[in-house]
Write a structure and sequence with these properties.
By secondary structure, the chain is an all-alpha fold. It is built from four helices and no strands.
């Protein structure tokens, strides 16, 4: 359990290192003076590369299958929702724990008040609670992505039936 938590704590550092590494590779590729497909007619250096910049073609609507577009959209939504889901799950856990202890009549319930209502001596979360909050927030993020998929599929099906082309 402690290994999992230490790996989760090290994850932001690993992501930062990956971003820095990819940025340096991109800087090397753009700064190398690559002139793919250009002809040099007596000019040197940057003037030759500036006159022949290649522009990528935009994606065509049928270039990727629908399942791949749906999967990519679900990935983006899941990653985007996760921070908000984590905040929400953490807040609801704090509030729920406080309410359960208060209703049960625990004399230490005020020590577990959520957020800024809590005293400075508020006990921290256990490893199991931290993992539970992470799993819950991942579940909420995946649920939002699934709901988005279901709504999008319903709209696509309705549009295809209205046009008469079938599903």
């Amino acid at each position: 359990m402690r290994k999992v938590l230490s790996a989760l704590r090290a994850a932001p550092v690993a992501v930062l290192l990956l971003v820095l590494a990819s940025a340096s590779v991109a800087a090397q590729n753009t700064g190398s003076g690559s002139t793919a497909g250009s002809t040099q007619s007596g000019t040197t250096g940057s003037s030759a590369t500036a006159s022949t910049t290649l522009q990528p073609a935009p994606y065509q609507p049928d270039e990727f299958p629908q399942w791949a577009r749906d999967l990519r959209r679900a990935e983006i939504i899941t990653i985007g929702v996760f921070p908000f889901a984590y905040l929400y799950t953490n807040a609801m856990y704090d509030l729920g724990r406080f309410l359960v202890l208060t209703i049960a009549g625990n004399p230490n319930a005020s020590n577990y008040a959520p957020w800024f209502f809590a005293p400075p001596t508020k006990p921290g979360l256990t490893d199991g609670e931290t993992v539970g909050i992470l799993v819950g927030s991942i579940g909420v993020a995946v649920l939002v992505a699934f709901l988005d998929y279901a709504i999008g599929k319903s709209h696509r099906d309705n549009a295809s039936q209205a046009s008469g082309s079938g599903p």
